[in-house]
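dumping this here before i forget
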Amino acid sequence: MTPSMMGRLVSVCLAAVVAAAGAAAAVDVTAVVKERQATMKQQAKDMGAIKAFLDGKGDQATAQTAATGLTQTTAKIPDLFPPGSDKPSPSGEFAPKAAIWTDWNKFLDAQKAAHSKAEALLAAVKGGDKAAIQTAFADLGKNGCGNCHTNFRQKLKP
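structure:
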């Protein structure tokens, strides 16, 4: 193969890689927004299961499954907010604030804090001490979920 042919082959391969990367980077915004809302609804359901246990209306095993779910969903939050997915929720009730993408590191810090608080809640649920569970539950709600919602979510409808 001549040097000129090798150069063309490298150029063609490089163009193919760039095109493939661009296609992979394309985001199905509708699907992302639906998954994001489904994840947030699942988190609310999981918090409800833990609250039911705290209120004597649920069992510890269900609360532990819910707390495990919270550790999993809080871990994947950054994946639910790719650039270009700044559309409102399907219900039209909420939309992400631009600060998610303009201050990505602050968003990641909030996500990491929420995930850490979800892990603490799981440990408390596993321990079974309702006072410890209540403390961890309130901390996740206020300083985990609430912190993110205050700083990175806007309400569109009253």
